[in-house]
Amino acid sequence: MTRKRRKESRLILVLGGAASGKSQVALDLAGQVGPRAFVATGQALDREMKVRIERHQATRSSDWETAEVPADLAKWFSNNGKIYQTIVLDCLTLWLSNLQRRRLRDVAVSEATANLLQAIRATRARVVMVSNELGLGLVPATKAVRAFRDLAGRVNQQVAAEADEVYLTISGLPLRLK
């Protein structure tokens, strides 16, 4: 029996705090339909991040193809998205951090997010995006960190508005919001 390919994409957003289990929830929601791609935005800029990346890699089976895409996500989805039935993008927050290193203004980040969403919708894949919910903790002490938290919140809202499903992960438990 051959599987029929979906005619349109399915976008799922998984939010959560640090170490909330959101990446595992995303992998669970992604399912087993292949071919599958894991799009990683994190970069091993220090030893601690290298260990985190290795730990995440160990949780995925060998049938996942990994693409390391720190910034040009819309381009990657446009060039490669149609190859896959399932794509996990982990994570939007690191992507934003990478964009900020390029000194993009907030309006450019909003446009980049819109372009990313458009590129995702041009695929027929089930796309599960992971992002940190930064607004549940303490108010950051510095203006720059508060600005980043606010930008991440706006991007999460932009993606959630477009998403077909949205989950909030707390202590490894997903709560469906949409």
Question: Can you give a write-up of this model?
Answer:
Helices cover 42% and strands 22% of the residues. The protein has helices at 22-30, 47-58, 73-80, 92-101, 106-121, 143-162; strands spanning 10-16, 36-40, 64-68, 86-90, 126-132, 165-170, 173-176. The chain has a seven-stranded mixed sheet, sandwiched between helices. Strand 6 and strand 7 (173-176) form a beta hairpin. The longest helix has 20 residues, at 143-162.
Q: Could you tell me the number of beta strands? A: 7
Rg from Cα: 16 Å
| Annotated CATH topology | Rossmann fold
Low-confidence stretches: none
| Helix share, percent | 40-55%
**What is the C-level CATH assignment?**
Alpha Beta
Query: Which percent range describes the beta-strand content?
Result: 15-25%
* Number of domain modules: 1
Describe the largest sheet: 7 strands, mixed
The rounded distance between the terminal residues' Cα atoms is: 32 Å
Q: Round the mean pLDDT to the nearest integer and report it.
A: 90
Strand order of the largest sheet: 3-2-4-5-1-6-7
Q: Sum up the overall morphology in one term.
A: globular
CATH superfamily: P-loop containing nucleotide triphosphate hydrolases
| Tally of individual helices | 6
Order of helices and strands: EHEHEHEHHEHEE
CATH 2nd-level architecture: 3-Layer(aba) Sandwich
Structural class: alpha/beta
Oligomer: single chain
